[in-house]
Specification:
The complex is a heterodimer. By secondary structure, chain A is an all-alpha fold. Chain A is built from 14 helices and four strands. The chains are: A mainly alpha, B alpha/beta. At the A-B interface, helix 9 and helix 10 of A face helix 2, helix 3 and helix 4 of B.
Chain lengths: 378, 252
C-alpha cells in the first residue's frame, strides 16, 4: 500500500510537473501531443481544489473534525492576493484610461464613489506583505474561531454547524458593497503579477507549476505529520477523544493547531487559484462550495493521503462536463455521487484497489465453498 | 498503620439537576493499596471516578492527592490530573481502534505531551524497553503490530490498563474491568491487578462478586453517594445494612 502510494506520487509528479508543462510549451499546435493553454489553466484550477481537499481531509479524515467552512479560508487567501493584484492594475484600469481616476484606485472603488484608498488596502501594494497575509489572515481567523470553539468543547455536528455558520456570515459580509472588497462582483480584471502579464501563456504555465509544487509540498507535509507522535495523537483524537484527554494530552491545543494549519493550507491554495481563474468573489465562500469540498474528499477517499486529490480532480472534471451537458442536473449528479460513495465505496477512489482485492477474495472463497461439496462427493 | 494516605476525598457533594449523586463522601486510600468499590446501580461509583479525574467538579468538598497529599485536584483539568499520575480505565474499553497495539501504548508512555514536543518526539531505547515491558505485563507483546480495534474485548481492557502503566500512573482507577469478559479473562485480569498492587495504588469498581472475592483486600460499599461501610469482603457481606441495600437483591 505504502509502496504503491509512493509510486503513484512519483508518476503523478512527473506527469503533472514535467510532461504536461513541456507538452504545453513545446508540443506543436494542433498535434495530438499538444496541451492547450486552456487545459493547463483548467488543471491549475483542479489542483488548487486538490490542495483545498487535502486541507479538508486533514481535519475531517485525520482528526475527525468535519469542517463545512473550509472555503472561507480558501477565499480569504484568495482575497489577500486579489487585493494586491487589484492595486497592480494601476494605470491599466478602465477609469484611469478614461481619465477619471488620478489616484489609480481599483475600478470598483471609483464606481462606488470611494474618495481614496481605504487604509487597510495600502500595505497590499507590497507583494511580500500580501503573500504574508495570504497565510496570516486565514490562520488568524482560524485561531480565534478555533480557540473559542475548542475551548468550549464544541464537537461533532455542532462544530460542523458553526463552521458553516461562520462561512455563511462571512459571505454575507463580503457581499456588502461597503465592506470594501467589491461586494458581489468581488475582485477581478487582474492584469499583472510581479510585473508579468497574467494572460501570457508562460505566466499561466508558471502558475500551474507553482500549484503542482505547492500540492506536492502540502502532501509531503501531511505525510510527515502523520508519522510523528503528533500525527498519532491527532488520529487518536478522531477515534476516542476522551481517551486522549485522559491520557494527559490537552486535545484543545492539538485540534487548534490542526485547524490553523488546515486554514493556512487552504489560504495558500486560494491565493494560487485567484490569478489563474482571474476573479474572487463572495460566492466562493458560500456554504455549498465548502460542502462540495467535503464531497471531493468522500469520493476520493477520506483519511487517505492521495484520495482528496483524486476526488477533487474527478468531481471537477465531471462538473466541467456536466455543467455544460446537463446544467440543471449538476447538484443531483453531485448528490448521487456522494450517496453512492458513502454506500458502496466508503474508502473512496483511493480505497478501491483494496476493495476490489477484498471482493475478489470473497468471491473466490465463495466459489471454493460452493465447489467443495461436489469435490468431496466425486 | 505506617502506610501513607495517597488520595483523600473529604465532604464531597455533587448533584445533577437536584439528584444527589455524591453526598458528603469521605474516602481515604493508602499508598500501594488495592481497594474495591462496590455498590448498587446509581450509588455514585462512576461519578466518584469522574470527580477524581476532573471530568466533573464537586459542588463542595475537596479532593487531594499525592504522597503527603500535596496536590489539591478538586478543580483541575483532566489532562493536568492525569499528569499528576492518576490514570483511568473506562467502563467500556476505549482504545485507539485505528492504531496498532504498540502505538496505543506509545501514546500512553510517560513523557512530554505538548503540541510541539510531540511533533519532534523520537522513541529512545529506554522508552522502547519500557514499552515492551508493559506489553509483556499485560500479555499483548505478540499482538503488538495488530490494530487495537481487532483485539478481543478482554484484550482491549488489558491494553487500556497497559496504557495507564506506560504513563507510570501512581493511582489507577479501574471501572468494571470484568464486564463482558469470559471467566478465564476475568481471572487473568484479577491476577494482573493483584500483581500491580503495591507498585501502584488501585481503585477497582466492580459488580461481579466472584471477581471481587478474587482481588479484594479492603472493600468500600457506596450507597446513595456516600460510604455505607468499609472492611474485608466477609465483613461487608455479613453487614446487615449492606445485605439489605445491595447483596440481598441478587437473591430474588
Amino acid at each position: 500500500m505504502r509502496k504503491s502510494e509512493n509510486l503513484i506520487m512519483l508518476v503523478g509528479a512527473l506527469l503533472l510537473l514535467v510532461v504536461l508543462p513541456c507538452l504545453n510549451a513545446f508540443g506543436a499546435e494542433g498535434s495530438a501531443l499538444h496541451v492547450s493553454d486552456y487545459t493547463i489553466n483548467l488543471w491549475g484550477k483542479y489542483l488548487c481544489y486538490g490542495i483545498l481537499a487535502v486541507s479538508v481531509n486533514l481535519l475531517w479524515g485525520y482528526t475527525g473534525l468535519l469542517s463545512l467552512g473550509q472555503c472561507l479560508f480558501f477565499s480569504l487567501g484568495g482575497y489577500a492576493l486579489g487585493m494586491h493584484l487589484m492595486l497592480k492594475i494601476g494605470k491599466l484600469g478602465q477609469y484611469y484610461q478614461a481619465g477619471n481616476n488620478p489616484l489609480e484606485l481599483p475600478d470598483f472603488m471609483v464606481f462606488l464613489g470611494y474618495p481614496e484608498l481605504p487604509a487597510h488596502w495600502v500595505p497590499f501594494h507590497s507583494f511580500g506583505f500580501a503573500a504574508l497575509m495570504v497565510l496570516v489572515i486565514p490562520g488568524l481567523v482560524a485561531f480565534l474561531f478555533g480557540w473559542l470553539i475548542f475551548r468550549s468543547r464544541i464537537k461533532g455536528v455542532y462544530f460542523s454547524i458553526l463552521t458553516q455558520a461562520l462561512t455563511y456570515a462571512a459571505s454575507l459580509l463580503f457581499f456588502q458593497n461597503k465592506f470594501t472588497f467589491g461586494g458581489n462582483n468581488g475582485l477581478t480584471d487582474f492584469k499583472t503579477l510581479l510585473e508579468a502579464d497574467l494572460n501570457a501563456p508562460e505566466v499561466r504555465r508558471n502558475l500551474y507549476v507553482a500549484t503542482v509544487l505547492l500540492l506536492m509540498a502540502v502532501l509531503g507535509l501531511v505525510k510527515w505529520l502523520l508519522g510523528t507522535k503528533f500525527g498519532k495523537v491527532q488520529q487518536a483524537i478522531r477515534d476516542s477523544e476522551n481517551r486522549v484527554l485522559f491520557s494527559g494530552y490537552a486535545t484543545t491545543s492539538f485540534k487548534l493547531l490542526i485547524f490553523v494549519l488546515a486554514a493556512v493550507i487552504a489560504g495558500a491554495a486560494g491565493a494560487l487559484y485567484v490569478p489563474q481563474v482571474g476573479i474572487i468573489n463572495p460566492s466562493e465562500m458560500t456554504t455549498d462550495k465548502s460542502l462540495e469540498a467535503v464531497v471531493w474528499v468522500a469520493v476520493g477517499g477520506r483519511a487517505t493521503l492521495l484520495g482528496p486529490v483524486y476526488g477533487a480532480i474527478v468531481v471537477n472534471v465531471l462538473k466541467s462536463w456536466a455543467t455544460t451537458a446537463y446544467p440543471d442536473y449538476w447538484y443531483i449528479i453531485l448528490g448521487t455521487l456522494f450517496v453512492l460513495a458513502v454506500l458502496f465505496a466508503p474508502n473512496g477512489i483511493a480505497g478501491m484497489p483494496q476493495q476490489c482485492r477484498d471482493g475478489l477474495a470473497w468471491w473466490k472463497r465463495r466459489g471454493a465453498s460452493l465447489a467443495s461439496p461436489l469435490a468431496t462427493s466425486a | 498503620m505506617s502506610s501513607q494516605v495517597i488520595l483523600a476525598a473529604e465532604g464531597v457533594n455533587k448533584s445533577f439537576d437536584g439528584f444527589k449523586a455524591i453526598s458528603d463522601l469521605n474516602f481515604y486510600l493508602d499508598e500501594g493499596e488495592l481497594r474495591t468499590v462496590i455498590g448498587p446501580n446509581g450509588a455514585g461509583k462512576s461519578t466518584f471516578l469522574d470527580l477524581i479525574t476532573g471530568r466533573t467538579r464537586p459542588d463542595s468538598g475537596r479532593i487531594v492527592f499525592g504522597t503527603g497529599l500535596g496536590e489539591e485536584i478538586t478543580s483541575r483539568k483532566e489532562y493536568e490530573i492525569y499528569r499528576l499520575g492518576i490514570g483511568r480505565k473506562f467502563q467500556t474499553p476505549s482504545v485507539f481502534a485505528e492504531h496498532s497495539v504498540f502505538d496505543n501504548i506509545l501514546l500512553g508512555l510517560k513523557g512530554p505531551r505538548g503540541v510541539f514536543r510531540t511533533l519532534f518526539a523520537k522513541l529512545s531505547s529506554g522508552e522502547q524497553d519500557r514499552l515492551e515491558e508493559v506489553l509483556k505485563t499485560v500479555g499483548l507483546f505478540d499482538k503488538r503490530h495488530d490494530l487495537a480495534g481487532s483485539l478481543a474485548h478482554g484484550q482491549k481492557q488489558w491494553l487500556e490498563i497497559g496504557m495507564l502503566l506506560a504513563q507510570e500512573a501512581k493511582l489507577l482507577l479501574v471501572d468494571e474491568p470484568a464486564a463482558g469478559m469470559t471467566d478465564e479473562e476475568t481471572h487473568k485480569t484479577g491476577e494482573l491487578l493483584l500483581s500491580l498492587a503495591g507498585k501502584h495504588s488501585i481503585i477497582v469498581i466492580e459488580h461481579d462478586m466472584v471477581f471481587v472475592r478474587q482481588i479484594a483486600r479492603k472493600v468500600t460499599v457506596l450507597h446513595q453517594g456516600h460510604v455505607l461501610c468499609e472492611g474485608s469482603v466477609d465483613d461487608v457481606q455479613n453487614n446487615e445494612e449492606v445485605r439489605r441495600v445491595y447483596l440481598g437483591r441478587g437473591k430474588h
